[in-house]
Amino acid sequence: GLEERFTKVLNKLGKKKKLNERNISDGIREIKLALLEADVNYKVVRDFVAELKDDATGELVIKNVNPTQMFVKVVHDKLVDFMGGTNEDLKITGKNASVIMLVGLQGSGKTTTAAKLAQFAKKKKEKSVALVGADIYRPAAQDQLEVLSKQINVPFYGGGLKEKPEKIVKGALKQYRDQDVIIIDTAGRLQIDDEMMKELEQIKKQTKPDEILFVSDAMAGQSVVDVVSEFDNRLGISGVILTKFDSDARGGAALSIKRVTGAPIKFIGVGEKIDDLEPFHPERIAGRILG
Amino acid sequence: SLSIRNELDDFYDDIEEILVTGDVGIETTLEILESFKSKTEEDTIENQENLTGKFKQVLIDTIPQKEFELSDNKINIIFVFGVNGVGKTTSIGKLANLFKEQGKRVLIAACDTFRAAASKQLAKWAYSIDVQIVKHTEGASPGAVLYDAIDAAIARKMDVLIVDTAGRFHNRNNLMQELDKLNKILDKKIQDCKKQNLIVLDANTGHNAFVQAKEFKEVIPVDGIILAKLDSTAKGGIVLPISHKLNIPVFFAGIGEKAEDLIKFDRIDFINMLF
Ligand SMILES: Nc1nc2c(ncn2[C@@H]2O[C@H](COP(=O)(O)OP(=O)(O)OP(=O)(O)O)[C@@H](O)[C@H]2O)c(=O)[nH]1
Ligand SMILES: Nc1nc2c(ncn2[C@@H]2O[C@H](COP(=O)(O)OP(=O)(O)OP(=O)(O)O)[C@@H](O)[C@H]2O)c(=O)[nH]1
Ligand SMILES: [Mg+2]
Ligand SMILES: [Mg+2]
Predict the structure, then answer these.
(1) Of A12, A133, B70, B208, which has the fewest Cβ atoms less than 10 A away?
(2) Would you say residue A176 has pLDDT above 80?
């Protein structure tokens, strides 16, 4: 992990127990490498490292008895701070019906996460929930969400592929206006697909969501910054869910997304089952990104 | 001279940014730069355009260009796997469509019996491109579907059998063992065939795509890659470390969600797109 790498760097510089400008810059280089290997975006790493240099060359680090541990702590704390301090909850307003809309690239885990969120709202928050399948493109997308809805005994509204998504969500909001929460699953799409992004704008206009959650998987690479910026510019992202955190992906996308949108990361997906959803805790993810 | 040195530094900084933001990975980027610098005479540095061209050629030469081929006189087995959501099922639909257009008799096996509506998704693909499919009900054992599909492929004298599997991460030991078991069934049950194991990778994935290729390869042979979602803004640069360190060829790229959105991977176009 990062601690071992720092130890190697500082040991290379001989028996000096104290840090100075020169060996801090070697430590900074190790951080840059570690963050890039963790898939944090190149420009986000540059910014992070520049801020870190200012912090680290302050009195605090130089005077400390165990410079390696102190340096790792400075980096770790800065990372946690970058990723938004504490965990933020799901916005369920208490007046019917709170609408949550899930958006993102193809295959990121939206449909599975929609069901997980419904389960979370039902079991942990004791709310009534309805699931809406607004993906009319992917073969058997509606079937997929319907099967999951049945598993957790939550009503499903799908429009049977005969209606456009804008009409589907309109019908769903009418039929389930007495539920506490309505969760809308949308089709995966590229942020550069103007027609499909317009469709999301239409769905937003139609449903006035309380939450628009961007769903990305934890293994996303450098381009996630371009993706989430565009979704944010066009729709306004109120929160983020990162899926597939049960993989061994380092998850640097978490830092990139948070830096670029400022939106809180609310949950992480940690498996394929409906209960595999956890609230996001920055300290744990910071440790994982640093390796 | 100092000005050449400074221009060179700028050039290498630009290259580093291009490669890293293209998901080549910092480790491989630094290795490639190191090796290029050591082979490039500083006093014979030509203008930046020529240097970029030279650099691109080095990258192109790193990538194996291998043609995907079907056998004309034995049954072809294509075993498809990869982590969750990368595009396996969709890529199989595209492949089946491609081979059908080439006049082959194609059968698809729906061996993802785990995920909600997975078999139904593949069945809808089969129906839309008019290709035969073997599937069971959800919760059936993937091995059982595979046995049935193999029998059907032989009995119906199919040219190609394509096997879809459930998404799985390489750090899930029990799921990797299941994959190994399915691979062994194929190896044991069909003696005279041409079998190709293809991993599907998502072009949006960062460094983990390399780990996926490496770890899957430690469990079963990986003969080639389908790089899906190359129509996104991601560059799929992970192909470089995979080529360099694992030597697995990329056979196809997915460039969209429809049946025709599959192209032969071309390393020259790929490197040009990276820049
Ligand atoms: N291991 C793991 N798999 C997940 C997780 N979340 C989703 N998946 C799997 O990822 C795959 C894709 O999930 P979907 O819910 O179909 O993704 P999607 O975003 O709805 O896909 P599109 O609708 O095609 O854009 C499925 O195999 C899911 O079971 C997670 O947290 N961990
Ligand atoms: N834009 C684009 N989307 C793709 C491509 N290939 C697949 N997709 C989409 O990615 C999503 C996931 O595709 P699937 O074929 O279900 O992926 P999978 O690997 O079978 O997923 P699991 O079985 O759940 O692990 C779907 O929405 C596909 O339409 C591609 O080349 N380009
Ligand atoms: Mg979906
Ligand atoms: Mg599939």
Answers:
(1) A12
(2) yes
Q: Does the CB atom of residue B231 touch ligand 2 within 6 A?
A: yes
Q: DSSP readout, A242-258?
A: EE-TTSS---THHHHHH
* Residues in chain A within 8 Å Cβ distance of B83: 219, 244, 247
The mean pLDDT value for B251-256 works out to 98
- Closest ligand 1 atom to residue B168 Cα is 1
Is residue B98 a contact partner of residue B90, using CB atoms and an 8 Å limit? no
Is the pLDDT at B191 greater than 80? The verdict is yes
Which positions 249-278 of A are in contact with B (Cβ < 8 Å)? 249-250, 252-253, 272
The per-residue pLDDT for A87 is 63
Cα Rg of chain A (Å, integer): 22
3-class SS of residue A273:
coil
User: Are the beta carbons of A148 and B204 separated by less than 8 Å?
Assistant: no
- For residues A249-258, give the mean pLDDT: 96
Q: Which residues contact B231 (CB under 8 A, 6 or more apart)?
A: A190, B254, B255, B256, B261
Please indicate whether residue A85, judged by its CB atom, sits closer than 6 Å to ligand 2: no
From atom 7 of ligand 1, which residue's Cα is the shortest distance away?
A: A109
Question: Is the separation of the CB atoms in A245 and A277 below 8 Å?
Answer: no
The CA distance from A41 to A248, in Å, is 18
pLDDT band (50, 70, 90) for residue A88: confident
Side-chain-side CA neighbours of residue A74 (13 Å): 26
User: Which contacts (CB < 8 Å, 24+ apart) does range B151-154 have?
Assistant: B152/B107, B153/B75, B153/B107, B154/B75, B154/B190
A190–chain B nearest CA distance, Å: 6
Name the closest residue on chain B to residue A38, using Cα atoms: B207
For chains A and B, CB pairs below 8 A equal: 129
Distance of alpha carbon A155 from alpha carbon A179, whole angstroms: 10
In 3D, which of A202, A185, A174 has the Cα closest to residue A134? A185
Residue range B121-138: mean pLDDT, rounded: 96
Report yes or no: A241 and A119 within 8 Å, Cβ to Cβ: no
B148, burial (CB in 10 Å: exposed 0-12, middle 13-18, buried 19+): middle
> Measured from the CB, is residue B86 less than 6 Å from ligand 2?
yes
Q: A235 near A204, Cβ under 8 Å? A: yes
CA–CA distance, A23 with A21 (Å, rounded to integer): 6
Classify residue B70 as left (phi > 0), alpha (psi -120 to 50) or beta: beta
Percent of chain A with pLDDT over 70: 88
Name the token pair of A180: 């506490």
Q: Which residue of A has its CA nearest to B25?
A: A37
- The C-alpha atoms of residue A204 and residue A209 are separated, in whole angstroms, by 6
Helix or strand or coil: residue B172?
A: coil
Give, rounded to a whole angstrom, the gap between the first and last alpha carbons of chain B. 28
Q: What is the pLDDT of residue A93?
A: 74
Name the residues around ion ligand 3, CB cutoff 5 A: A 110-111
